[in-house]
Structures are given as structure tokens and as C-alpha cells.
Amino acid sequence: MKIRVADISVKPKSVEAIDDFSRYPALVKAQEAGECEFIAPINISLSIAREYDHIRLHGGIGSSVKLTCSRCLAEYTAGIASRFTIFYTKSADLQPEDEVELGEEDLISVSYSGDEIDFAEEIAEQVLLEIPYKPLCSEECRGLCFSCGTDLNNAICSCGENAVSMTFSPLKGLKVKS
């Protein structure tokens, strides 16, 4: 998704789009790696305006993904949504300095060059930030039995009564000299 810099004015310009995840290489890579499966297009809502020496992008994204629970390995569907603000500064305006104290605006800023700004990388980044690192189907998920592999959300296994903790087993042969 690109916009010409000359078309950006002080008055905010709204852009709405529905995009397929396959147009974003980072999202394709995440799906191929098994992190998630996109089951709905990405809804994009942007407001772009020129402010002083930078361009302000305020936006929101939304989609649905299929995830695998990190505790019980069950697949589930989750909605993802994000609101964000990014400041774009022309790369020629940036001055290299030895030490720089970063303000809040600097932490959410990106440089651009040329006559167009491509928002694709930042949109993909916002989507990826919303995909959980360790997905859980629910906070109450009990996971799998570490001995027999039974899904403890659906059944009770008999391993719990006879289970032996192997936590300290490497220390079994340790001899301490006094």
C-alpha cells in the first residue's frame, strides 16, 4: 500500500483497504513457519496527515488467524486487532549524531525517501506483533499429561496418581565429599 508524499496534506486523508496476507512477504513467511494460518483478509484503516517536519500515520488492522495452543496442541481461531501511530521522516532530514536521546516519537518513527511511502512493511509488522508468541486456547488450558500425552482438558489420565517427578533425577548419582 503506497501513497504519494505530494498527496499528503495537513488535513488527514483516510484510506480503507482489505488486503490478502499473501501480499506481505513477512506474513507469508510466518504462515509457512507454522506460527499461524490466516483465515480472513486483513482489514486496514489508515489516517495520514502532514505535521511540521514529519508525516503522521494513525491506523488500525484486523484479521482472523488459526493458531495451535502451546499447551494442549489444539487448533483454535483468534481475532487480531491493533491500533498504532507511526511518524515518517524524510531520510535526508536525518542528521547522524554520536549520542542521541530518543523520545517517544523517535521510538515509533520510520524514515522514507523518494516521492512515495510504502506502508506494507509497517502493516505486516503490526499484524505480526498481534500474533501471540505462546498461543493459548484459554487461560484455563491444562495442557497435555507429560507422561502419557492425554489432553487434560478432555480427560483425566491415571498417570497423575503414579507419576514420579523427574525434576531432580540428574542429581541421583551426585556424591558430596565432606
Account of the 3D structure:
15% of the residues lie in helices and 34% in strands. It has 2 domains: 2-141, no CATH class; 144-178, no CATH class. Helix 1 runs parallel beside helix 3. The model has no long low-confidence stretch (mean pLDDT 84). The strands form 2 sheets. Strands 2, 3, 4, 5, 6 and 7 form a 6-stranded mixed sheet that branches. It has 178 residues and is α+β, with helices and mostly antiparallel strands.
Which secondary structure elements does this structure contain, and how are they paired or packed?
Elements: E1 2-4, E2 13-19, H1 25-32, E3 37-38, E4 42-51, E5 54-68, E6 75-90, H2 104-107, E7 109-112, E8 116-118, H3 120-130, H4 159-162
Parallel strand pairs: 6-7
Antiparallel strand pairs: 1-8, 2-4, 3-5, 4-5, 5-6
Helix pairs in contact: 1-3
